[in-house]
Design brief:
This protein is of the alpha/beta class. It is built from 4 helices and 7 strands.
């Protein structure tokens, strides 16, 4: 499932991706009905069958992200896990702990925090 430059409600997103195995989000914002942004820990439980995750410029984390991620058990594990330009503060060690626990051997992993500075 590919989403590029879209705004989706969380309810619509959840229905669309329920059975997807491949998820590509690029410049896409997912909102709850009260207009708050869905965070990474809200999105992951919606895609229990996804083994390929690519998120570009639309990954939001919150103060609860690190605790919530450690509670999520993934099956299948990720073969590709790429997140570029994560917005928000999170304990990188705990985030990495979640990644290591949920990837396949020889998985492709790329994580980029924040936006690059333009000179």
């Amino acid at each position: 499932m590919i989403f590029d430059i879209q705004n989706l409600t969380f309810g619509i997103f959840k229905k669309i991706v329920e059975c997807t195995e491949i998820l590509r989000l690029s410049n896409t914002k997912i909102y709850f009905s009260d207009d708050t942004i869905a965070h990474f820990e809200d999105i992951l439980p919606c895609i229990p069958n996804a083994y390929f995750i690519y998120i570009f410029k639309c990954c939001y984390v919150s103060p609860r992200t690190e605790k919530m991620l450690l509670l999520i058990k993934r099956n299948p594990k990720f073969s590709t896990f790429e997140i570029n330009y994560i917005e928000g503060d999170v304990d990188t060690d705990k985030f990495w702990e979640f990644v290591v626990k949920n990837i396949q051997p020889r998985a492709r992993v790329e994580i980029c925090w924040g936006y690059p500075e333009i000179m």
